[in-house]
Design brief:
The complex is a heterodimer of chains A (about 260) and B (about 350). By secondary structure, chain A is an alpha/beta fold. Chain A folds into two domains: about 230 residues, Rossmann fold (3-Layer(aba) Sandwich); about 30 residues. In chain A, about 35% of the residues lie in helices and about 25% in strands. In chain A, about 40% of the residues are buried. Chain B is mainly α. Chain B has one domain: ABC transporter involved in vitamin B12 uptake, BtuC (Orthogonal Bundle), CATH 1.10.3470. In chain B, helix 3 packs across helix 12, helix 4 packs across helix 11 and helix 12 crosses helix 14. The chains are: A alpha/beta (about 260), B mainly alpha (about 350).
């Protein structure tokens, strides 16, 4: 059966730099696929391919089994692929409801004279946030006054509202404290329950493991493999993430040093 | 309304600090009553001719200040907005007195000229990613030279005269630069109010307004969610230059002649009006209604100083003081808007 979104051996080069090489992964409705990798592993480049910011130099992207070419983020969104970026694509000085509909403002009017339907917009924002279990004080307050977790939550709610079939989350928990990260993980599960396919990009295996159904590990632009949750346990995931063999070598070296120094 | 214990009932003072237009309104009221005292030799409050005088001056500032404010909220400046008034008025004079064009088609050509200059400004800023401050400063100086040299070459003088000899002049003047019948108020004041209403509506109630805020507030985020930031900015430059062209038309029709140096210096007055209206120099925030009161304030200062029988050179000092006070207030407002409550 065709997957909702699939990357088939995609590669990306920036001049002579190989940013991504032969990466494959897929996600289906109501699932969370985690893309794990350390800094510089190619996570950001991969998101940009999936969300239409950049185009792959080799390999194919498929939506519901059909090959697609995204010329811009608009194209990707038209296929129901929404990306919540690390910087959230929100304007701090603008109110929550203005941000929520930025780039997709509901309009009403006669002929060419159309205006932004603010009352409808505010109503939708209040309802949507409540449905996601997000507790926001006042849709008129500037986004700059929200906490990091609250901003993430609004961004996720926005993507889900706009009919995202696939939700790409770029390091949504990396800048957050433990409690706030937990809140965001809860919204990821909530989005999954609503039938959204989630691609969760993170460098933190402890955040990925509890919510993920499938794990793809990137290292220096290459895939270290894709695992179903049943095939891998948390410890193994942490070990792979930390560089696997490299870590083993490091341990070996440390042992050697200890032996030289002698028992204390 | 959903009630929430975390939404504190805030006092009038702290609400005021999130609404730049109210600050500008209170400032304008304060200036009005200050001159009611200082200019008590004339009937500052009650005399319609006095009000007609300062509203005329305020309209002169306020018409172009509206698109300048929108442009600033969109994160850009236009230093050529002042000189464009001169260029447009001179072009109208040239087309009517030297090419014997009827005023109405000539005005159409002048507006097209305004659209073109704005488009060049906007496209240059968007394509080169240079600061608009520099790009429009270049436009300013290029046009200033063209205005002076062109006028001198054409007329042997520093002004184009006798624009009122053109056909269609009277009908056009009635529409753009005439008097409202009763109190000597100028038609210009209606243009000022109308353009303010359109600008405020655009900013607050349309999709384009949302795009303006986002283009100035965080252009990268805006692009990521699909806002056509480049198109928005170019359109703002076009609106600014076209409105300056309209102002040039109004002045040429009102004065019946156009000086080569007309409009120079006004670009900063427009920016002061916008800053008084709460526009941040960094973009993303501001108010058209506030800009309206900013223009009213500066118009009152201009006339009030004369009516108080002070040396009119003090006007600049007043303008500087108002600008400084407004910037301080704006900085306070922004830091409040960005602080987590």
């Amino acid at each position: 059966m065709a997957h909702l979104l699939e990357a088939d051996h995609v590669s990306k080069y920036y001049g002579n730099i190989v940013a991504l090489k032969d990466i494959s992964m897929y996600v289906d409705a109501g699932e969370v696929t985690c893309i794990l990798g350390d800094n510089g592993a190619g996570k950001s480049s991969f998101i940009k391919l999936l969300s239409g910011v950049h185009q792959a130099d080799a390999g194919r992207l498929l939506v519901a089994g059909e090959e697609v070419h995204f010329g811009s983020p608009r194209d990707a969104r038209a296929k129901g692929i929404a990306t919540v970026y690390q910087d959230l694509a929100m304007v701090p000085l603008m109110s929550i409801w203005r941000n929520f509909f930025l780039g997709a403002e509901p309009r009403k009017g006669i002929g060419p004279l159309k205006w932004f339907d603010a009352a409808t917009a505010k109503g939708i924002v209040r309802r949507e946030l409540r449905e996601m279990g997000i507790d926001i004080r006042d849709p008129d307050q500037p986004v700059g006054t929200l906490s990091g977790g609250e901003r993430q939550s609004v961004a996720i709610a926005r993507a889900v509202y706009f009919g995202a079939r696939v939700l790409i989350l770029d390091e949504p928990t990396s800048a957050l404290g433990v409690k706030q990260a937990g809140v965001v993980l809860k919204y990821i599960l909530q989005a999954r329950e609503r039938g959204v396919a989630v691609i969760f990009i993170t460098h933190n295996p402890h955040h990925a493991y509890p919510v993920g159904d499938r794990f793809v590990i990137l290292n220096r632009g290459q895939s270290l493999g894709a695992y179903e949750k049943s095939e891998i346990d948390r410890q193994e995931l942490v070990r792979l993430m930390a560089g696997g063999r490299e870590l083993a070598e490091l341990e070996h070296e440390l042992e050697a040093i200890k032996a030289e120094v002698g028992p204390e | 309304m959903v009630s929430d214990e975390r939404v504190r009932r805030t006092g009038a003072w702290s609400r005021l600090l999130t609404r730049p237009d109210i600050g500008a309104f209170l400032g304008a009221v304060a200036v009005f009553f200050a001159f009611a005292y200082f200019a008590r030799a004339v009937n500052w409050i009650g005399e319609p001719a006095i009000a007609a005088g300062w509203t005329d001056q305020a309209a002169q500032y306020g018409i172009v200040a509206v698109p300048v404010a929108l442009l600033m909220i969109g994160g850009e400046f236009d230093l050529s907005a002042g000189v464009m008034i001169g260029s447009s008025g001179l072009l109208l004079g040239y087309l009517t007195t030297y090419q014997d064009l009827n005023v109405w088609p000539a005005m159409l050509l002048v507006l097209l000229f305004g659209l073109a200059v704005g488009f060049v400004n906007g496209l240059t800023v968007v394509r080169t990613r240079l600061p608009s401050f520099i790009v429009t400063l270049a436009t300013f100086f290029v046009l200033q030279g063209v205005n002076a040299a062109g006028t001198l070459r054409l007329t042997g003088q520093t002004a184009i005269q006798d624009i009122d000899s053109a056909s269609g002049f009277e009908s056009a003047r009635k529409f753009f630069a005439g008097d409202l019948t009763q109190y000597d108020f100028k038609v210009k004041v209606l243009w000022w109010i109308a353009i303010t209403i359109v600008g405020a509506w655009l900013l607050a109630k349309t999709r384009f307004g949302n795009w303006i805020y986002s283009a100035g507030g965080d252009p990268n985020s805006a692009r990521n969610v699909g806002v056509p930031v480049a198109r928005t900015k170019i359109l703002l430059f076009v609106m600014t230059s076209a409105t300056a062209a309209l102002m040039g038309i109004i002045e040429a029709l009102e004065l019946r002649s156009m000086q080569a140096g007309e409009g120079i210096g006004l670009e900063f007055i427009f920016i002061i009006c916008a800053v008084v209206g709460g526009c941040l120099l960094t973009g993303g925030f501001g108010s058209v209604i506030g800009t309206f009161f900013g223009a009213a304030m500066l118009g009152m200062v201009q006339l009030g100083i004369v009516d108080s029988q002070w040396d009119s050179n003090w006007t600049f000092t007043f303008q500087g003081g108002i600008l400084f006070a407004a910037v301080m207030l704006n900085t306070l407002i922004r830091s409040r808007a960005q602080r987590a409550r």
